[in-house]
Amino acid sequence: MEVLQSLRYSLYLIFHPFDGFWDLKHEKKGNLKTAMLIVAMVCVTFILRRQLTGFILNEVKLRELNIIVEILSVALPFFLWCVANWCLTTLMDGEGSFKDIVITSAYALIPIILINLPLIVFSNIITLEEAAFYRFFDILAIVWAGVLLFLGTSVVHQYSLTKTFLTSICIVIGMGLIIFIALLFFSLLQQMFSFFYTIYKEVALRL
């Protein structure tokens, strides 16, 4: 019941972002369980979109569709945003906890679900000449979610819009740095594994 109430509240939040995000944090109108459900719903939306979008607009080869990759394409950027957000705003006097950031960021994704699910149906009944309408709403979903993510960051950390803009740029850069460090770390692990495996083979051959 609590989750259903939180989901209903998300419909208010996307049209009243300042009051919505304020109540989300201070009045506890949202919760972590609902936030994770929203992220899961976004993942499902992307998978359905890849599979069921009309052939006129769908360039995906269904035989090459990998559900795990589709889930990671949503979940990984989301959690990278949350981690980079928390790391930077902790140093920049942000007032939001990691939990607040996760909840706020998840609720900001609601337009992606609300717009893309009807678009899947719409894509199967339109002609190529009407594809411009599809692309308009496709872009609208991303822009709307982006604006909500921006405003949510502003409200949860009590930043001015200028500081939020600069912080958002730093967060994106931070996400890139996290990816770079992670790739570097796994590359070093791979090299260490190869090194010890080579030593193991040499010893095994000599024995």
Commentary on this structure:
The protein has 207 residues and is mainly alpha-helical. It has one domain. The protein has eight helices and no strands. The N and C termini lie far apart (66 Å).
Identify the notable features of this structure and list them briefly.
207 residues; mainly alpha; 80% helix; globular
Sheet-strand content, in percent, reads under 5%
Shape from CA axes?
A: globular
Q: First CA to last CA: what distance?
A: 66 Å
Task: Figure out the total of helices.
Answer: 8
- Helix residue percentage: over 70%
- Which class do the helix and strand fractions yield? mainly alpha
Short description:
The chain has 207 residues and is an all-alpha fold. The chain has helices at 2-13, 17-26, 32-52, 67-91, 98-107, 110-123, 131-157, 161-206.
Layout: helices, strands, pairs:
Layout lengths: L1 H12 L3 H10 L5 H21 L14 H25 L6 H10 L2 H14 L7 H27 L3 H46 L1
